[in-house]
Amino acid sequence: MKKQNKEVYTFQSEVKQLLHLMIHSLYSNKEIFLRELISNASDAIDKLRFESISSPRLYEDDSTMKIQISINKAQKTLIISDNGIGMTKQDTIDNLGTIAKSGTKSFLQSLEKEKNKKNELIGEFGVGFYSLFIVSEKVYVRTRYAGTKPEEGTLWESSGEGEYNITNITKKTRGTEITLFLKKKEEDFLEIWKIKNIISKYSDHITVPVNIQNYDEKNKTYFWEQINKAKALWTLNKSSITEDEYKKFYKHLTNDQHEPLIWSHNRVEGTQEYISLLYLPKKAAWDIWNRENKHGLKLYVKRVFIMDNSQKFLPNYLRFIRGLIDSSDLPLNISREILQDNSITNNIKKSLTKRSLKMLETLSKNSNKKYHTFWNQFGLILKEGPAEDSENLSKITNLLRFTSIKNNSSEQTLSLKEYVSNMNEKQEKIYYITADSYISAKNSPHLELFKKNNIDVLLLSDRIDEWMMNYLVEFEGKKFQSISKEDTSLNQLTEEKKIKNNELSKEMINFLKKVKNLLGNKVKDVRLTYRLTETPCVLLSDSNEMTTQMAKLFSAAGQSIPELKYIFEINPKHLLIKKICLINNEIEFEEWIKLLLDQAFLAEKGNLENPHKFISRMNKLLLK
């Protein structure tokens, strides 16, 4: 190989931080560097297979794919090579010298939070290449992009200390060869048995043969020995695959160090033929809420890797599902445009959606503990389902979990089936309340009637809950009812009939008229209620109007909302109300009523337009 034109580059600042960390801090489980390099080599071969569908010349008369590992104990070097797609000079600079798409910044931030899980995070954040500096004092990367001339090769050199060199070289074969000059204390990685163990542990199911150079003492010759099985696990019969093999394959597929909660392996034959292998992770990916980062299944066509993160086979509310699909019906040269409008794709998506929901249903029935783990990680995402997927609304609703008054905990463990089975005999609806927080929901004055009558109420405090409830109309024939909205069906549980029977005192009738005149159009109506037990007054939304929580959501999204007019309900049994009834001073009476209205607004909305005025009014009345 000829060298020429050496150029010196400086690593991007965040990569410098990362390299320093790799070299000086990450010492546990050092073997992960080999897992990452094998994974990268496998990806490079997958990319070549895909690109060569339209450009067969990229094979350069060699279509046999392989990853090779050789050891030189004299020079203390470990060499990993592949004959995949390779890199151009610019690719080398972009991929090995800058942050690019590696997520290095997020990785560094997460290390502060996950100090005891450093090596686990490496794979998750795609910064695996740099892990080789844990064991290496110097690294050479020789690479050439498939289909280019031999003299268009590139040599990348670095000691991981802030700079790297780029040199133009001649490389006869396509692909990438990485030479690790191992640190003195890392020489155990020069033992063939150790390399075999690591490959078997992490890379057994990579579909490319991983060969190691061995020496035959008898014949005094070198030979290549295959280490891994190199079979596509998903194509094997389910009965021949062990649980441990499924778990190992998941870790290889996703770079997730946690074992999956459950998986579903299925082969479909007939009008459409495809294999799916779906996994439910134990922990959410670090970027699952980042809309710029794509999530989805790996797509294979006739075992040829086509693309990562194909989002067309599962709805967005199931984006936490990991896995792959291997189709026999899609064309090998499929493009993203074809995927967007393809009846086969749509049919597969419907089938995989049902299979994913069935997998969740199985988990919920078989293991409360595991399902609780799932819900804590992905419950917020599943709550997007009712708005997105009306076809599977019933299945999704059964999978939802809530907390309630009777739960007496913020943990969302209650299913709607459990709620309905424990309903009060007189209860006609499923009652719920939405609020900014669990504490706020739990202490809402709207709950007083329900606590008194031993009626359970769902406490919803996630931001998405109000939106979700717009799409949940009923469950098992029971309609959902927000208790912060007007509901005449509750009258049978209260003493509301007293109002209709005109059994109010003259003082209370006059009091009600005075309050209505005083507040005018500040509220939609003023009326008495017997639904409260400890609170003097409360605000209620009209049954046809937007709730307070929905208004907050629209406002937070920058959308204009109509002015909300509330029904002001007053508890005639409350001692404070009885006392105010007796006040003859018009100014003092007005101050008390405005104070009560502000209190009700504070309880309902969590804030006031003019808190200073409220405090001033309260202080004046306290002094009296």
UniProtKB/TrEMBL annotation:
Source species, domain of life: Bacteria
The entry's keywords: ATP-binding, Chaperone, Cytoplasm, Nucleotide-binding, Stress response
PROSITE patterns with a match to the protein in the record: HSP90
GO cellular component: cytoplasm
Gene Ontology MF term list: ATP binding; ATP hydrolysis activity; ATP-dependent protein folding chaperone; unfolded protein binding
InterPro entries (UniProt xref): HATPase_C_sf, Heat_shock_protein_90_CS, HSP90_C, Hsp90_fam, Hsp90_N, Ribosomal_Su5_D2-typ_SF
Binding site for ATP: E36, N40, D82, M87, N95, K101, S102, G103, T176, R336
Region (C): 553-624
Compartments it resides in: Cytoplasm
Renumbered residue ranges of the record's region B: 337-552
Region feature A, mapped onto this chain: 1-336
Subunit structure: Homodimer.
NCBIfam families: PRK05218.1
Entry's family note: Belongs to the heat shock protein 90 family.
Function: Molecular chaperone. Has ATPase activity.
Entry protein name: Chaperone protein HtpG
